[in-house]
Amino acid sequence: MQLYYFPGACSLADHIVLEWIDVPYETIRMDRNGIRSLEYLALNPTGTVPLLVDGDFHLTQNAAILWYLADRYSAAHLLGEPSPQGRAEVMRWLSLLNSDLHPAFKPIFSPTRFLPDASRVDEIAEAARDTVRKYLAILNARLDGRDWLVDQRSIADPYLFVMLRWAVRLNVELKGFEHLGRFLERMYADPGVRKAIIEEEGETAERARAAI
After folding, report:
1. What is the pLDDT, as a whole number, of residue 212?
2. β-pair partners for 39
3. Band (57; pLDDT cuts 50, 70, 90)
4. What angle do CA 54, 59, 64 make, to 5 degrees?
5. What's the whole-number average pLDDT of the chain?
């Protein structure tokens, strides 16, 4: 099994899940030239990461990869309680992260894509930070009295972890989100999380945690 990733991208969530399910895998580090290469576009025409290759099966889209890994390796128990309601709870939070919070970061990463007027890029980025905080407030409330987004560790948690790392990197104010802060500490202490970060970014969990 191979995971194509880009350092700092949402593919880190899939990398963490590969560690959690404890199966053999290989990671392939991509760069901006690599994801535009004809060779890679033949595998993934969107020119994005992540891409998971499992034998002859090629799968794109972060949420789909997370679900596939958890479903195929069900012994890791990353899809919530074994009931329709339990699995739906995981999908609820995974969907919020994938469909609402993740896209909310895009105007911060690339404000000129949304507003070509360079003199107003700070304005659109700040508006996007407010939107990100709105979703983070929902997630912070969800973690009140909880260690994880559902009643047990699930595929939604690594995705949230990536989003929180983005928030720190992009100067989204996290003051007042104490439950999210505790969640970050818990994730950074996880051996699988630490291993994935070190492999992708060459930093220890201690250095990463110091940036919070």
Report:
1. 42
2. none
3. very high
4. 115
5. 94
**Which token pair is 133?**
């905080």
Cβ neighbours of residue 20 under 8 Å, at least 6 residues apart?
A: 76, 78, 153, 158, 192
Domains and CATH numbers, the chain: 2-76 (3.40.30.10), 84-210 (1.20.1050.10)
Task: Determine the 3-state secondary structure of 56 from DSSP.
Answer: coil
Span 5-11, mean pLDDT? Answer: 96
- Tell me how far CA of residue 197 lies from CA of 32, 133, 136, 165, 171, in angstroms: 19, 24, 22, 11, 20
pTM: 0.94
Alpha-carbon gap, residue 128 to 45, rounded angstroms: 28
Q: Report how far residue 190's alpha carbon sits from residue 1's, in angstroms, rounded to the nearest whole number.
A: 23
Residue in the structure block whose two tokens are 């195929």: 72
In sequence order, which ranges of 10-119 are alpha helices (DSSP H)? 11-21, 38-43, 62-72, 84-95, 102-104, 106-109
Task: Tell me the C-alpha distance between 21 and 40, whole Å.
Answer: 26
